[in-house]
Amino acid sequence: xxxxxxxxxxxxxxxxxxxxxxxxxxxxxxxxxxxxxxxxxxxxxxxxxxxxxxxxxxxxxxxxxxxxxxxxxxxxxxxxxxxxxxxxxxxxxxxxxxxxxxxxxxxxxxxxxxxxxxxxxxxxxxxxxxxxxxxxxxxxxxxxxxxxxxxxxxxxxxxxxxxxxxxxxxxxxxxxxxxxxxxxxxxxxxxxxxxxxxxxxxxxxxxxxxxxxxxxxxxxxxxxxxxxxxxxxxxxxxxxxxxxxxxxxxxxxxxxxxxxxxxxxxxxxxxxxxxxxxxxxxxxxxxxxxxxxxxxxxxxxxxxxxxxxxxxxxxxxxx
Length: 319
Prior knowledge:
Blueprint lengths: L2 H6 L4 H13 L2 H8 L3 H15 L4 E4 L2 E4 L1 H27 L4 E6 L6 H13 L4 E6 L2 H10 L4 E4 L11 E16 L3 H7 L9 E4 L11 H10 L7 E5 L2 H10 L3 E5 H4 L3 H4 L1 E3 L5 E11 L6 H21 L4
Parallel strand pairs: 3-4, 3-5, 7-8, 7-9
Antiparallel strand pairs: 1-2, 5-11, 6-9, 6-10, 6-11
């Protein structure tokens, strides 16, 4: 491949973005709608890229398009290039503002250790603004990829081609259990050894248990054993606190993080359904691999490590 020719023919970011859009949409027509351009203009752009590389990127057929092997290899690099450009622009934009740390946080980390870590950091760095965005792990990883976060506290990336994009350091183990109000009929059914009837339950809109994990069949069987069938997941919400309220006051079942509830179960009137605890991937510090880390960001990460380590020691656990 003549790289000088590639440069001369403008293999620019826009063309790579369009290539990614066509690849992900599986259709020139759908990708053209995403960019708000005509389909012929998009097709011409991809043909220019193919000519620059002297390689076919898609096989056109009566049933649509299929990416070629060179296209599959190029897509991986193109995603990295486009993501790096987004991160670069975001970093430049942030450097022109008052120093800010963009921090993504999984919902279950709204606990005492996290709050104490932020307070300790603020005492030493009152000139730094911490902008907190809450979200589930996949959402936070996408924000990291786009460059809108400096740091996320979430679960590790799934074992995909994106895994190498991130550095991950575990901080806290996770487990989930099914909870219900203490007077929920499921407890009487289980205690009496009766067949468990199906029960309405509230589900987190972004799954807290990945169904592709190896024990997913066992998890589904366990949920079914306490009456939680997919058809009875009548409410889906992204707020963990709302799920707690629905379980407490709405008579629903719900799978909730044990760490979030361990200090509050007695107070809020909830009870764990026996035999429903499952382990989940740990939560930890996640950054984009090789990304720049300011002194204040490194200090925040150090305080978070120390604080969560002390929390584990209080609980007699290890990570």
